[in-house]
Write a structure and sequence with these properties.
The protein is mainly α. It has a domain of 112 residues. Helix 3 packs antiparallel against helix 4. 82% of the residues lie in helices and 0% in strands. It is built from 8 helices and no strands.
Length: 195
C-alpha cells in the first residue's frame, strides 16, 4: 500500500513538474496582479465522515510519513543534476542545499494529502475504506505496512537487474544480426575518445 501511494505521489509530482515546464513554454495570458489567487480545490466534495476515515487510513498505513519524506526524495534527482553540471563541487553542494530548502518550501504536503483523499474517494467506497481501516489496524495489516517498503525496494532492485540484463541481451542480439550497428557503435566510441 505504501509503495502504491509512493508511486502515485511520484507520478503526480512528475506530472506537475512536467506540466509546469509545459506551461512555461506556452504563451501566458496576462493576469491582473490585483486579482485574488484562486485556492486549490479542497476535498470538501468528499463526504466528511468518509474523508475522516480516509485520513485515518492514510495515517494508519504510513502515508503521512511518505509525504513527509517525499520532498527531500523527489528533490534529490534535481540536486544530483546540479552537482553533475557544476564543476565547482563546493558551489554545487551549496546550490543543492539551497534547491532542497526551496523545494521543501514550495512542496505543499497538505495539498498532496487533499489530492490523495480525493483519489481514495474516487476509487473506494466508504465501506471499502472501513474494511481497509480494519485491515491496517490488524497485526497483519501493520506488518504489511511495515514490510511493503522493504519488499518494494527489493523488487525494484531485482527488476532493474533483470531489465539491464534483458537490455544487454537484446543489444547483443541486434549487434549480431546487424553488423553495421556494431560498426557504427565502434565509430562512435572512437569519435568520443578523440574529443
Amino acid at each position: 500500500m505504501k509503495a502504491v501511494l509512493a508511486l502515485v505521489i511520484l507520478y503526480v509530482g512528475t506530472f506537475l513538474v512536467a506540466l509546469a515546464g509545459y506551461s512555461k513554454a506556452q504563451p501566458q495570458e496576462k493576469q491582473d496582479p490585483a486579482a485574488p489567487v484562486q485556492p486549490a480545490p479542497s476535498s470538501s466534495s468528499v463526504d466528511p465522515a468518509k474523508e475522516g476515515d480516509i485520513r485515518a487510513l492514510l495515517e494508519l498505513s504510513g502515508t503521512g510519513d511518505i509525504l513527509t519524506d517525499l520532498a527531500p526524495k523527489s528533490g534529490a534527482q534535481f540536486t544530483q543534476r546540479i552537482e553533475n553540471l557544476m564543476p565547482d563541487k563546493d558551489r554545487a553542494q551549496k546550490l543543492s542545499v539551497a534547491f532542497t530548502d526551496r523545494y521543501k518550501a514550495h512542496f505543499d504536503t497538505d495539498e498532496m494529502t487533499r489530492v490523495i483523499v480525493r483519489l481514495y474517494d474516487k476509487h473506494f467506497t466508504a465501506d471499502e475504506i472501513k474494511q481497509l481501516l480494519k485491515f491496517y489496524g490488524s497485526p497483519l495489516g501493520q506488518k504489511f505496512a511495515a514490510e511493503m517498503p522493504k519488499l518494494t525496494q527489493e523488487a525494484q532492485t531485482a527488476g532493474i537487474g533483470l531489465s539491464q540484463q534483458a537490455a544487454r541481451d537484446a543489444w547483443q542480439d541486434l549487434r549480431q544480426q546487424n553488423p553495421d550497428l556494431a560498426q557504427a557503435q565502434r565509430q562512435e566510441w572512437r569519435r568520443q575518445k578523440q574529443q
